[in-house]
Design goal:
Largest sheet of chain B: 5 strands, parallel
Mean pLDDT of chain A: 90
Order of helices and strands of chain A: EHEHEHEHEHH
Number of domains of chain A: 1
Strand content of chain A: 5-15%
Oligomer: heterodimer
CATH topology of chain A: Rossmann fold
Largest interface: A-B, 31 and 29 residues
Radius of gyration of chain A: 16 Å
Helix content of chain A: 40-55%
Number of strands of chain B: 5
Number of strands of chain A: 5
CATH superfamily of chain A: Response regulator
Structural class of chain B: alpha/beta
Strand content of chain B: 5-15%
Low-confidence stretches of chain B: none
Radius of gyration of chain B: 14 Å
Distance between the termini of chain B: 18 Å
Low-confidence stretches of chain A: 140-145
CATH architecture of chain A: 3-Layer(aba) Sandwich
Number of helices of chain A: 6
CATH class of chain A: Alpha Beta
Largest sheet of chain A: 5 strands, parallel
Strand order of the largest sheet of chain B: 2-1-3-4-5
Strand order of the largest sheet of chain A: 2-1-3-4-5
Order of helices and strands of chain B: EHEHEHEHEH
Shape of chain B: globular
Shape of chain A: globular
Amino acid sequence: MRDLRPILLAEDDSVDAMTVKRALKDLKVTNRLVHVVDGEQALEYLRNESNKKPCLILLDLNMPKMNGIEFLKVAKADEMLKTIPVVVLTTSRQEQDIVESFELSVAGYMVKAVDYKKFVEVIRTIDLYWSLSKLAEQEEEEERGNEDARLNANTAHRG
Amino acid sequence: MRDSMPILLIEDDSVDAMTVKRAFKELNVANQLVHTVDGEQALEYLRSESNKKPCLILLDLNMPKMNGIEFLKIVKADGTLKRIPVVVLTISKEEQDIVESFRFGVAGYIVKSVDSKKFTEIIRTINLYWILSELPSVE
């Protein structure tokens, strides 16, 4: 993505998580992927000040401990976290899940494709859309740091 | 878009509105495009029971009467309307506008391009993304 911050993936299924990782790699998306296995762990990551806030959250719905909808209820009531766009990535096509997710301001609801090629297309479109979209900065310091890193990278490249 | 419901465009600039319409036509987007010129008119449209609810709202920010942020405040507090995804389509790159929009749960913040080819590409990406995404029924 255009943004250099990590992407947070909340997904309890290790095979599905691996598929996301592989798709990002195949698409040469360089953002670091932080993988957590449920909503509780996602909140822990997000609330730990030493962790970089992600630019995007990919959220599974059916997870143990704290599921996706429960996570959304907490994250979208948190002033610090609510500005991070959340895209649901699930196998559920249930209307109730779709409606509840959008009522909690998700920025997309993608049903996982079983076919890997189709799955890559889904991740490609997510990457394309969120590279086009502006994203809210979290900590100004960090952003400036990123900008410096980008400039340094450019200079190094030219050098 | 995946849905056959209309798309609501809220845009005061008639040239910009025409550009969106033209891009839709070029890309063969079949959804009806409903055009309103400010937040007030958009709310009127959304609240009239005889109108079909849109599957997606494309929202400009700088508009007279009721601007985009004011519109978001009202729509995102409305039990029925809050679930319709809103994509901001603006010329503003101001961080305050971006943060406020995401605070109100927008589903994307896209800066308009003056170049018509680039603009069509933007609409193509928005269309592709919302074809893939499921959308809630709003009735």
